[in-house]
Amino acid sequence: MSPAYFRRLAAVLATLSFAFAPFASASTSKTGQWKGYIGIDAMTGQTLVQENADVVTPPASMTKLMTYAVLYDKLQSGALTLGTQIQVTAADSKIGGTQVYLDPSESFTAEEMIYAMMIQSANDCSYALARASAGSVEAFVGLMNAKAKELGMTRTTFRSPHGLPPSSRNIAEGDLTTPRDFALLCRHLVLKTDVLKYTSAKERDFGPLRAKGPQHMINHNKLMGKVDGVDGLKTGYTKSAGYCLSATALRNNRRVIVVIMGAFGPQGKIDLGASRDRKTIELITSSFAALPAGSPAFVGTPWAAPVSPVSASPTEGTPGAPASSDEPMVKFNFGPKKK
Q1: Is 121 a catalytic residue?
Q2: pLDDT digits (tens, 9 = 90+) for 214-241
Q3: Three-class DSSP labels, 123-177
Q4: Residue 326 within a domain
Q5: Which of 100, 102, 116, 298 lies 20 to 30 Å from 251 when distance is taken between CA atoms?
């Protein structure tokens, strides 16, 4: 039999393995459904709430949190600096999905691209940062998987620095993880890196010196500024992944991390993440309530407050994010309207 036959067979087996992963079916409620979630104490790592926390499913744009974890290691080693100028290539500009519309004639600092990756969920910046910092995207993805192994993420495989689905649209060939694994990553980030410097920024302009003018970015995490203590981390959405969110909140010197994956509205409705956000708020509340008395105060890496945005309002006509790459920017109603 030909090598092509065995490659096709391997792909089929991988798909079946994914399909029958533990707890692969969604849990449902009157307000929505989800594949799995977990809430942990960021300081101790203790699990506070969980349901189907070991389900294997795509993380979508939450993948960019691992991209940042690898970039932070590069920054710490001196292989990359925040001021490093990254020249855009044609490949960077063709990634698609949510982006800041990089052009091969442009170059930006690594720091500016990191802000775009975290606030705008810019796939083009994620790709450019990976390529420039490791020599190739393939080499960078190798570092992502090595980092996952280091952190004990045993059910995780990364295949991209951005979280977009593979060209084959075969779920088993894309990025895969679990809520429990991803909580390990988030805990590492809040304890050992300055990721909150970027994920806590509510809005910012990208490319203030661009000839065509800056692109105003608004954080996709709708809990920012709406839910007490929330200062990160990252949203995600693709059709195969559903709505995902890694969130963290600090209250009374205690920090919790909540990861929810594969969320949709009732009956699987595409609801722009509203059900996911409501469930996350509930999980943050229940996680804080489950913290043991006398649990240690949170102590993480110090970080500087985010820089104020360059301009106060978005430019009319700025293209929105396609629903296939991350949720478009919409307002979320956190309570009944006042009459």
Answers
A1: yes
A2: 999 999 999 999 999 999 999 999 999 9
A3: HHHHHHHHHHHHCCHHHHHHHHHHHHHHCCCCCCECCCCCCCCCCCCCHHHCCEE
A4: no
A5: 116
Measured over the CA atoms of residue 304, residue 65, residue 137 and residue 141, the dihedral's sign is: positive
pLDDT at 302: 77
8 Å CB contact between 95 and 202: no
**Signed CA dihedral, 323, 329, 332, 337: sign only:** negative
In a domain, 154, yes or no: yes
| Distance (Å, whole) CA 255 – CA 41 | 6
Domain assignment present for 15: no
* Angle value at C-alpha 193, between 188 and 195, nearest 5 degrees: 100
> In the structure encoding, which two tokens stand for residue 143, read together?
């570092």
This prediction's pTM: 0.84
| Catalytic-role residue among 74, 93, 121, 200 | 121
Number of domains in the chain: 1
pLDDT average, residue stretch 256-280: 94
Q: Assess whether 64 carries a catalytic annotation.
A: yes
pLDDT tens-digit readout, 115-171: 999 999 999 999 999 999 999 999 999 999 999 999 999 999 999 999 999 988 899
Q: What is the mean pLDDT of residues 250-274?
A: 94
Domain assignment of residue 249, given as a range: 30-290
- Tokens found for residue 61: 């744009």
